[in-house]
Amino acid sequence: MYNRPPGPPQGYGYAPPSGPPPQGYGYAPPPGPPPQGYGYPPQQGYGYAPPQGPPPPQRRQDNYGRQQQSYGGGSNNYNQNSQQQQQQSYHNRDFSAPTGQAQHQKINGTNQYHDFRLSTCQGKKKALLVGINYIGTNNRLNGCINDVHNMCAFLINNFGYAKDDIVILTDDQTMMASVPIKQNIIRGMQWLVNGAQPNDSLVFHYSGHGGQTKDLDGDEEDGFDDVIYPLDFQTNGEITDDLMHDIMVKPLQPGVRLTALFDSCHSGTALDLPFVYRAQDGGIKEYNVWKDAGSDGLKAVMGYVTGDRSMMISSLGSVFTKITKSATGNYDSKMKNMKMSPADVISFSGCKDSQTSADASENGQATGAMSWAFITVMSQNREQSYLTLLQNVRTLLAQKYSQKPQLSSSHQIDVNMKFVM
Questions:
Q1: What is the pLDDT of residues 107-124, one digit of tens each?
Q2: Catalytic annotation, pick one of 209, 245, 266, 411
Q3: How far is CA 301 from CA 61, 113, 182, 215, 306, in A?
Q4: Which residues contact 259 (CB under 8 A, 6 or more apart)?
Q5: Residue 356 has what pLDDT?
Q6: C-beta separation of 182 from 230 below 8 A
């Protein structure tokens, strides 16, 4: 669904902010979610012509049958026979829940420590759910609006979220404040994090087109920022990973949980979090914390991981020179510059930065493949660790789709801890 648009217009008239938005935004939050029920007709007439969206989704053509393989009815056995033995090692286990205690964690490969606090997710719960079908364009998607309504019901029924604390932005609504144009999405992000306290739990779910654009601030090793595309992106621009990080991650206090779920193309590091995990064993496969330091940072990390002390030592000097030049303030400023956070931020994305995500059909309903898999796995068994959740979602999707979901975080996590939200 969510393929990379060919050359979105340049010069949208904004630049990513250098810091978090001011507190107290001076306006009311967007209206709450519309009535539930997925059978309502799309509403037209927003007062402007819908922009031409990104190109049609690219999907694998070899294995997209609609058949289900033991996905329903509360069973955990949604694996093929060849995978069952492997999956038994992490099904039906008891996982410890986070205690909310402060953590003092050494940053691998350095003498620096990072202070953060996990959330128990027992405080206030809020969610912003954004689904864009790009109605009226030549490249309309089909499942994104369904995705956010399914997520809304999932959060209410399984994790105690209140309907009044869930904001839904979709492009089938007649009230302009609820349409997912750029201004409304940014306003919703600000509402989501405003006033958050320790042990609160916040959810951001985006289903729509995603892509990449040229990196303008030098924080991406591959030279591209991940972006999401609001309904009005051709006139007002995309929303970059830098901007989402500045709005939704930087302002958070220690002990606040933000769980992000991106069902879009090129979304592997869409929230610009520093640590990305391997699905095989939960080890850290990518230290985005070093990407501000460029290739020297990558060499330092690889030297640490592989045991090549000479590579690590020779690279560390230039690493910290680059980091401290761009963050000349105190220790907290340096940690934030490296995209770390004292809060508890987790992101699941539908694919790698280099991949596309599928606009699919499951059980007769149009849906994003990642949204469907996440809700299916968690609905069948809420006793998941971060690692088993990632593994089970990947296993479920692998039967029909090529995309590989990703897990990233603002701090190093114990992937065997119970996932809560």
A1: 665 666 667 899 999 999
A2: 209
A3: 38, 16, 37, 22, 9
A4: 201, 202, 203, 204, 346, 347, 348, 421
A5: 57
A6: yes
Q: State how far the Cα of 396 lies from the Cα of 404, in Å rounded to an integer.
A: 11
Whether 209 is catalytic: yes
* CA–CA gap between residue 135 and residue 141 (Å, rounded): 8
CB neighbour list of residue 38: distance below 8 Å, 6 or more residues apart: 145, 146, 149, 150, 365
265 is catalytic: yes
* pLDDT at residue number 325: 44
Helix boundaries (H) for 121-276? 144-159, 182-193, 233-236, 241-248
What sign results for the dihedral spanned by CA atoms 357, 358, 362, 368? positive
Take residue 81 and report the two structure tokens written for it.
């026979």
Provide the pairing of β-strand 210-214 with 201-207.
Answer: unpaired
The single residue of 152, 265, 351, 411 carrying the catalytic annotation is 265
Cβ distance 210 to 227 under 8 Å? Answer: yes
| DSSP characters over 2-67 | -PPPSSPPS--S----SSPPPSS-SSPPPP-PPPS-S-PPPP---SSPPPP-SPPPP--SSS----
Tokens describing residue 82:
């060849």
Residues of the chain with pLDDT under 50: 2-92, 217-220, 289-298, 301-302, 304-306, 316, 319-336, 355
